[in-house]
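Sample pair:
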Amino acid sequence: MYILVRFAFLFVLLVTSTVFARDVLLDVRTPEEFSESHLPGAINIDVLNSNFSERVSALNKDDSYKVYCKFGKRATLAVTIMRDQGFKKLTDLGGYEEAQVTLKMKPGR
């Protein structure tokens, strides 16, 4: 009986983490840059804003984050901060144009 219950628990845990974990496209440029153009579906949290760490800490650490900025430096900074906060699934896409090519996306508004 114990083995069956343990298996059921592990199965539910696996399904739950798969269902609720998602890919998140994170644009760490300024709100002004984001409003001019961004990748479709991206969320915007400005890495240079003093509340970046606080806002990022509210995100789900089980999700997978693909991070980009304008040229790549801010994305690298954001990934470093997020990794220090315990995020594990991080991809530094570099700059905006590089991210478009990597993800095969056109800009959105």
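The domain at 22-103 is CATH 3.40.250.10 (Oxidized Rhodanese; domain 1).
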